[in-house]
Amino acid sequence: MSDWVLILGCSTGHGGATAERLAKDGYGIIGFHFDRGDVKKEAESLKQKISNINNGKVHFWNINAAAIKTMDEYIPKIAEITGGDSVKLLLHSIAFGTTTNFFSDKPVTQKQMDMTVHVMGNSLLYWTQKLFDEDLLGEGSRVVGLTSEGNYVAMDGYGPVSVAKVAMEAIIRQIGWELGKHGITANAVQAGVTPTRALTKITDNWEEWVEKTKRRNPMQRTTMPEDIANTISLLLRPEADFINCSIIYCDGGEHRSGSF
Hints:
single chain; about 260 residues; alpha/beta; Rossmann fold; 7-stranded parallel β-sheet; 8 helices; 7 strands; about 45% helix; globular
């Protein structure tokens, strides 16, 4: 087992916070992001910050991690970085998809649905398959995906993403069920409403969502990316070896507090 983790969607939000936290835990960070403009600059700044934390053990690639050709091209590079040893973590934190309704002036199209489900759901399966085939996932490795309350609560504009996340949850269960015998676990972490860039893409009323969340959350605040990062840090400990095929709620109890 290497001391490297692989984060798909590493530049900002939950992925960025997790990259920084795990660097502080001593892990080397291999990250993929797909950004332009100011967000690209944020990713470059985070990479430098992580490098300062873990003595340069960081590799970021700005390319579409959901593309099969990317997987085929970069997995050999990952193997070279880890010396052929398994990564400790594969984290799927890609937040890119179509946010629109099924029935509206511009209803979701098949192309948009297929893209969203692939990028935010199915791509995790293909990464896991390819890493496992190359012995880059092994005993003690964790596969983690991020999910949300929108998987069982209908929300305006969230339909395509909800479908993708439900698919990802099913994929995670199956990965854990099939690879558990190899000591590889797979779990989803469910965040509450988090004021990140991804939230602003879901709805123009994101500020209202944040205020409603503060009122209904038992802890009277929103989830922060650092909360998710801390939870994933805990899941990497040996004491979490037997947590598998599960959804871990990191939302302050928000999912128990009624619907939006």
